[in-house]
Automatic annotation (TrEMBL):
Protein name: Arylsulfatase
InterPro entries reported in the protein's UniProt record: Alkaline_phosphatase_core_sf, GAG_Ulvan_Degrading_Sulfatases, Sulfatase_CS, Sulfatase_N
UniProt keyword Transmembrane present: no
PROSITE patterns named among the record's database cross-references: SULFATASE_1 (PS00523), SULFATASE_2 (PS00149)
UniProt family annotation: Belongs to the sulfatase family.
SUPFAM superfamilies xref list: Alkaline phosphatase-like
CDD domains, A to Z: ARS_like (cd16143)
The keyword Nucleus is assigned to this record: no
Species in which this protein is naturally found: Steroidobacter agaridevorans
Molecular function per GO: hydrolase activity
Ranges where the Sulfatase N-terminal domain occurs: 5-375
Annotated keywords: Hydrolase
Length: 497
């Protein structure tokens, strides 16, 4: 190896196993991502660490499963920083290895120490945990404040129009979706019916910061241009870019040039927009002459969902499209659809080309695997669930993990807010087997089954990938053995060697 490769993680938001044509989608076409898959290795056994955003990203960036820490649920837009300064992280490790590090896109890991004042320096945030540069949204597309932060400041903020945010009660005088549904581009459920920004009602209330608010239709182009600026400025040194795109998370409001492109309504159009973005970004890497020196990992933070609060026709227009592919359920679920996600890795001349890998890998492994790649040692007490999966990640070995812990948390409604503050549900995949730990009666959220039952469930994923035949009663010994193994992994406080 001449020099350390650039590393880019392109992390989609709620993209399902079945949402790409390289993974079997026939209604949606994703030619640019398919080309990336052809140029590298496509994984069929890759897992996001959790079935929702915040815990998956927490685990990916720290190497610790989120369920080991408290507070690792879907965060409101004004939550304090979850990963604390001093904590070991992927960007910090790469920085120690001489990398320039940046994040562009969705953050959703909290900011500040308590009540953030959006009109001042905002810290701690990405810059305090290992990123040299950040251009990011605080939380999600559907949560206030709908502004972008560059490093520690809200970008384009007019000091004469200060921002205020509240998640409990209305601030300012701007209309809400609940009061004025006639002002909306599309209808929304009560949780998504607070302050209207750009014709879309959000979760939470905000006022001020008018000049700083993003336009949903232009946001992806804006993030792409910041990602391009970042790699262009750092093309002569190794860099790490965490490019956290929003597609196809709600609200889905793609740029007009993609409207109608999928025939499936806004959700499909958002996936086409994502595919285009990947293509444009790859083309830029080629123009900069760094494509051959760049390792790209493309994946998703959790499984898919059709209806997630907005009336955008995702359900009605899905047709035969199966966003989770052959897997059961999707986002929020402990079934495979919750965390089994597409993952593509490419690095010309290094990652095996045109390969489909069956190796079992979890995003929590990025830390240890990339540390091995760049020659960094991990502190003994850090990245406690991260396995060195460098060889399988490079498509050079099918020997992945022997087991993976899957995770979700139940959604709970209190008053008008919905949060994943309920019980934590864990499952263990080991070889062909999957044990879902017994917890509570069946639940569902927005049409996705969560997968809970009071008793343990056991599935054979080789014979029954759709998790239809619960074998727990037929095979009590294996069920008990796997349940004990899961208990021990939890108790030990560490699962990596
Ligand atoms: C939920 C939101 C959902 C989405 C999700 C986070 C409600 C009813 N639903 O609480 O719309 O924002 O949080 O998604 O409030 S994630 O991909 O960031 O985990
Ligand atoms: Ca997500």
């Amino acid at each position: 190896m001449k020099r350390k490769p650039n590393i880019i993680v392109i992390y989609a938001d709620d993209l399902g196993y079945g949402d790409l044509s390289s993974y079997g989608a026939t209604t949606i076409r994703t030619p640019n991502i398919d080309r990336l898959a052809e140029s590298g290795t496509r994984f069929v056994n890759a897992h996001a660490p959790s079935a929702t955003c915040t815990p998956s990203r927490y685990a990916m960036l720290t190497g610790d499963y989120a369920w080991r820490a408290s507070g690792t649920q879907i965060l409101p837009g004004d939550a304090p920083a979850l990963i604390r300064p001093g904590q070991f992280t992927l960007p910090l490790m790469l920085k120690n290895a001489g990398y320039a590090t940046g994040v562009v896109g969705k953050w959703h890991l909290g900011l500040g120490d308590g009540k953030v004042d959006w009109n001042r320096e905002i810290a701690p945030g990405p810059l305090e945990i290992g990123f040299d540069y950040g251009f990011f949204m605080p939380a999600t597309l559907d949560r206030v404040p709908t502004v972008l932060i560059e490093n520690r400041r809200v970008a384009n903020l007019d000091p004469a129009d200060p921002i205020r945010v509240d998640y409990r009660s209305k601030v300012g005088s701007e209309p809400t979706g609940a009061e004025h549904p006639e002002l909306l581009k599309f209808g929304a459920d009560p949780e998504h019916s607070n302050t209207i920004v750009n014709g879309i009602s959000r979760i939470g209330y905000m006022t001020g910061g008018k000049a700083a608010r993003w336009s949903d239709e232009g946001l992806t182009d804006q993030l792409l241009s910041k990602a391009i600026d970042f790699v262009t400025a750092r093309k002569d040194q190794p860099f790490f870019l965490y490019f956290a795109v929003n597609e196809p998370h709600v609200p889905r409001a793609p740029h007009p040039r993609f409207v109608g492109s999928s025939g499936m309504g806004p959700r499909g159009d958002a996936i086409v927009q994502f595919d285009w973005t990947v293509g444009a970004f790859m083309q830029k890497l080629g123009q900069l002459g760094i494509a051959d020196d760049t390792l790209i990992i493309l994946s998703s933070d959790n499984g898919p969902i059709l209806f997630d609060g907005y009336d955008d026709q995702a359900v009605e227009r899905a047709g035969n499209h199966k966003p989770s592919g052959p897997y059961r359920s999707g986002k929020y679920s402990i079934y495979e659809g919750g965390t089994r996600v597409p993952m593509i890795v490419s690095w010309p001349g290094h990652v095996r080309e045109r390969h489909v890998s069956t190796a079992l890998i979890d995003h929590v492994d990025f830390v240890a695997s990339l540390a091995a790649l760049v020659g960094q040692k991990l502190p003994r007490d850090a990245a406690v669930d991260s396995f060195d999966m460098l060889a399988p990640l490079m498509g050079q070995s099918e020997r992945g993990r022997e087991f993976v812990v899957e995770d979700t948390k139940l959604m709970v409604t209190t008053g008008t807010t919905v949060a994943s503050s309920g019980a934590r549900i864990l499952a263990l995949r080991s070889g062909d087997w999957k044990l879902i730990r017994g917890s509570v009666e069946p639940h569902e959220f927005h049409g996705n089954e969560i997968g809970t039952l009071p008793h343990h469930q056991l599935y054979n994923l080789a014979r029954d990938p759709g998790e239809r035949e619960n074998l727990a009663q037929k095979m009590p010994d294996l069920t008990a053995r796997l349940a004990a193994m899961l208990d021990k992994l939890e108790r030990d406080g560490r699962s990596a060697p």
